[in-house]
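Exercise 7. Given the encoded structure of a 252-residue chain, write a plausible sequence.
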């Protein structure tokens, strides 16, 4: 239990390292902000297609025909997309008096990105906890893999917060607590529901989270990034985010 909790905390803390990478580079202009929102979109799309959806499909394929497995994953992705659209509406903050429209748009994306990353980190924490409890070596390998792709997630959270607040401490804090959703979700679920949470439940949850991420990336982050600056900086961000996250996923 203690070993698994330590692995989970280690993986979650990596999100704060990503935030530090953003803060150390200093302030953020509009062009850089468009890049970071594209970067966040690339991270979300890579995690969704290369990790969550692919793993869920392979797991479903073990005990059902592949066409049926694909349809099951697609159905859950669509459910996630609907939830993502609802989250986008619910997470819209109030516009402050005299606030520029671009700043408000980025602030909205900062809230939404954090919410989505928290939702993603909680089931990851569950998987890391259960993996570490069953097999110490496999648990360590999984924690390292999760930590590697939590670093760009921290960058994706910290960038918009730094742009809107100009506060390095707020950018770090928001990324840190989003990362802490990993051990909080993992340890809490393990203690309360270890006799009820099954691999099948987590497998069904993964494509739903993937659907939320895809909807957020395609319909929220990318359009707002283009409005902030231009499509060139957004595309650079998408490519960079996709490459960084893909390398982390392929290594483990």
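Solution.
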């Amino acid at each position: 239990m203690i070993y698994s909790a330590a692995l989970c905390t280690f993986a979650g803390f990596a999100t704060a390292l990503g935030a530090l990478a953003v803060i150390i580079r200093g302030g953020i202009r509009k062009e850089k902000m468009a890049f970071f929102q594209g970067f966040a979109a690339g991270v979300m799309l890579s995690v969704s297609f290369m990790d969550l959806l692919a793993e869920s499909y392979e797991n479903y394929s073990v005990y059902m025909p592949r066409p049926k497995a694909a349809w099951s994953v697609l159905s859950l992705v669509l459910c996630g997309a609907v939830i993502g659209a609802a989250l986008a509406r619910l997470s819209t903050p109030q516009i402050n008096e005299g606030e520029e429209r671009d700043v408000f748009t980025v602030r909205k994306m900062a809230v939404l990105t954090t919410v989505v990353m928290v939702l993603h980190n909680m089931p990851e924490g569950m998987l890391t906890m259960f993996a570490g409890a069953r097999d110490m070596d496999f648990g360590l390998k999984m924690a390292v893999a999760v930590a590697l792709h939590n670093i760009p997630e921290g960058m994706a959270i910290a960038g918009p917060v730094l742009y809107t607040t100009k506060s390095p401490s707020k950018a770090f804090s928001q990324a840190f607590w989003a990362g802490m959703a990993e051990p909080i979700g993992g340890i809490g679920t393990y203690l309360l529901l270890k006799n009820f949470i099954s691999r099948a439940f987590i497998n069904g949850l993964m494509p739903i989270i993937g659907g939320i991420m895809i909807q957020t990336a395609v319909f929220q982050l990318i359009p707002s990034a283009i409005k902030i600056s231009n499509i060139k900086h957004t595309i650079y961000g998408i490519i960079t985010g996709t490459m960084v996250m893909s390398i982390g996923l392929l290594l483990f």
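Remark. The CA atoms of residues 191 and 216 lie 31 Å apart. Students should compare their own answers with the one above.
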